Amino acid sequence: MTGRQKKMLVRIIAAAVLLAAGYLIPAQGWVRLVVFLVPYAVIGWDILWKAVRNISHGQVFDENFLMALATVGAFFTGEFPEAVAVMLFYQIGELFQSYAVGKSRQSIASLMDIRPDYANLERDGKTEQVDPEEVAVGDVILVKPGEKIPLDGVVLEGDSMVNTSALTGESVPREAYPGSDVISGCINQNGLLRIRVTKEFGESTVAKILDLVENSSSKKAKAENFITKFARWYTPAVVIAAVLLAVVPPLILQGGWNDWIHRALIFLVISCPCALVISVPLSFFGGIGGASRNGILVKGGNYLESLAHAETVVFDKTGTLTRGVFNVTAIHPNSFSEADLLELAALAESYSDHPISRSIREAYGKDPDLSRVTDVEELSGRGVRVRIDGKTVCAGNDKLMEETGVQWHPCHRVGTTVHIAVDGEYAGHIVISDEVKPDAVQAVSALKQQGISRTVMLTGDAKAVGESVAKELGLDEVHTELLPAGKVDCVEQLLKQKSAKGTLVFVGDGINDAPVLSRADIGIAMGAMGSDAAIEAADIVLMDDKPSKIADAIRIARKTLRIVTQNIVFALAVKGIVLLLGALGLANMWEAVFADVGVSVIAILNAMRALKNKL
Ligand code: ADP
Ligand code: MG
């Protein structure tokens, strides 16, 4: 509890005791008024003050004004204890609210406790602690066991296990050894690491994630906008109704002023939409925070909302459902030796970031002589074209061979075939194969269980490969041999076929699928640890590369939306009932204030459930 909250608690207790004392003192007339004015002043002076101040700023229908009007009105109609009680319960509700909101913020802040405080910079043979923002690309930093890795970089020296759980929610640590990339925000567990920094702090993974989480509340869900609009007319409408209720019936019935004013005051007590105004954004805030604790970064409440209505889920294949780590299963040369063909392929692929390229370089094992390679062209969805020793070399799929007019040989083996041609002459092919990710089958079946009616895979890979993967995973549909533009067309078709309420989710790895990510209702990029492109293009970012997280994300989204709906329906129903009972003269002020504060407390407690998303 903060100091301010503690002070308020003291005031609440004092006012409650004084109110109880007021009941026990058998005072009459103006003495009785004073007896109740004392606790009223103790608990309500700041509200009265704020009401006056806000009116002078032209802000009339705020909650302070409403409470002040209701309670002052109650004093005029002789309901002294009621006036004190309304103020007292209102303040209890406010205190609870500020406590709950503070708690949620705190727990999200600690979830996102990934901002590093310092970096151990190596300078002239010494190390000194500096602000991470002062470190430049190319600098060398030391990270001791137990320290947070402050910047993205490459390990130069040292072996260690790195705990990524603050970013991914994944408790199994990763290995770090010379040459491996490490990400800021992770904890170095056991070994000393010397790291060459590859990105400035402002561009680092940590800075990007923090940015994203901090900005997420600016993208509002429909439910949030609805509540804001609703609050704008609800309060004035209820106040006008209260005025009419206080004036019209006594004029018609010629009397009974006190009774009707009393009924009108009940309207004022219930006219504040606080429960909704606080609890709805708090639910989304909690849902986003709870998701990020599991390594699922959602860029705004609107995406959480549309994810809850997911109907079609479209996956990219390579790197998304499959590991994107290919093993060479066969080398079939036409005119070279096997070793020469592999070397040629590795040279051709030496500049590409595509999983296929990385795997071929890995299979080659040696460092290719980059000076032999010039004029690199990456042909997305097909392969690469480069010049090696002055000769044009193409490496890629059937499409690329057809385009270049090369007589290629089909391969009978199952797998992705990378053909190689030199100066238009066919040189042979390398067959590589990928594996599906260990949790991909479960990921697809979990989506089915959640009622996702259509699961689709898109790939630029060959028909045989695509179909066998789709079958293994139990996907409903597969479209193969697509270029990046073809994937966009495909998603556009699928968007037309879904129902009006449902949404389409596209899941990719961020490598050459940015156009599709942005075309889908919700773009999810996975394996974001270190991939800027993915973080930027997507609406939701999965820090690790587990497709099963998609079902988790949908579950969290649905839970959040359920909580929001519950709160809206519950709060409106209770307020409606109290308004009705009040108008009919069947409720008193005690009941009204109890109902109003009770709704707020319950709605906030319910909203805080959104934070808890233990998987
Ligand atoms: P996916 O749709 O499965 O993610 P891509 O669109 O990235 O796959 O690539 C489609 C196909 O294009 C690959 O299966 C491969 O045949 C070919 N290809 C793409 N990039 C390369 C490359 N760098 N080297 C060789 N072949 C490639
Ligand atoms: Mg891809």
Automatic annotation (TrEMBL):
EC number from the UniProt entry: 7.2.2.21
Tell me what topology the record assigns in the membrane.
Answer: Multi-pass membrane protein
Q: Which SUPFAM superfamilies match?
A: Calcium ATPase, transduction domain A (SSF81653), Calcium ATPase, transmembrane domain M (SSF81665), HAD-like (SSF56784)
* The keyword Translocase belongs to this UniProt entry's keyword annotation: yes
Residue span, P-type ATPase A domain: 115-214
Q: Does the keyword NADP apply?
A: no
What the record says about family reads: Belongs to the cation transport ATPase (P-type) (TC 3.A.3) family. Type IB subfamily.
Name recorded for this polypeptide: Cd(2+)-exporting ATPase
Record gene name: cadA
